[in-house]
Design goal:
353 residues, OB fold (Dihydrolipoamide Acetyltransferase, E2P), five-stranded antiparallel sheet, binds adenosine-5'-triphosphate, ABC_transporter-like_ATP-bd, ABC-type transporter activity, ABC_transporter-like_CS, ATP binding
Length: 353
Amino acid sequence: MARLRLDHVSKRYGDFHAVRDVTLDVADGEFVVLLGPSGCGKTTTLRMIAGFITPTAGGVHLADREVTGLPPWKRNAGMVFQSYALFPHLSVAQNVAFGLEMRRLAKADITTRVAEALKLVRLDHLAGRLPRQLSGGQQQRVALARALAIRPDVLLLDEPLSNLDAKLRQEVRVEIRELQRQLGLTTVMVTHDQEEALTMADRLVVMNEGSVRQIGGQRDLYERPADRFVAGFVGRGMFLTGRVEAPGRFRTEGGLALACDGGASGPAVLALRPERLEIGPAPLSGLDNSLPGTVEFISYLGAASDVHVRLSPSDRVIVQVANRGGDAAPEIGATVHVGWPATAGRLFAPGGD
Ligand code: ATP
């Protein structure tokens, strides 16, 4: 039984569809991430779950109850905002108590729950402080404690880590995920950060232009992207445009003849990933494709380097080469050979990004 269900939910502003026909079931204890570029409708979707925005069509069901028209305080959703939205004149404890007071809990219960929530986020020693006396990371934890204190049916996180520096963000990711697991909290998080989504989610919902493009686990999205947009947004996708001449034969606009995996004849886009390509000084044997090219650019990224190779006047690929000590990466201007098995490429209809 789903803890949270969105049933054909849409939100229109005049003629503009901010969210279009989103259907999603989130299971009890599941951590689902809404991932997509800016403006794709993820925040609007989250706010419809929280009750800050009413859908123009469709229904929201939370813990076996239809909550579509209910205001936020009448549904049991705990939300953490990107800006934290703490009350500056209230202490940490008073901020955490806020949602409980709105729900008219008894004073003694409020005290117990506030202490409990602050302990969970390890801030019990700062209960009397004001928000401005806290670091960004601590403020973020107060916002989380405030959401947890209501013992929510669903925890909603709107880009909760975007105001933290890179190192802290990595730590807080793990902290939130551990806490979520320990409490068995059903959680929906919004982010545009692919790495954050991949490291935290049980399941991802990839959105673009108001619509869901694909729902799945990390491996599904990476290995079997539903369309060109997902292939480009999850992991790194490179695209060669051209046409399938016959099943298994692809010709790029730049004239390269490539082996591909099946495909119906006609215009198509071949998606490749830098980490699936191989590179060497001589033609690569045992691969369906091996093409000569010239190294045009190299970016050194520590564990690996990206080698940009020109294969034809209009075809360029990036090959990811692991840096294992030695000086394996070729040099700019060198002639190299790039290869991959036909199954490493995926064909998509042109357009669709
Ligand atoms: P971001 O990551 O930038 O926050 P998002 O994916 O969360 O983006 P939303 O905030 O959900 O995007 O907005 C989706 C679209 O709806 C955007 O194009 C936005 O401009 C539009 N939109 C949001 N609120 C309104 C409104 N009140 N009136 C008109 N259009 C709106």
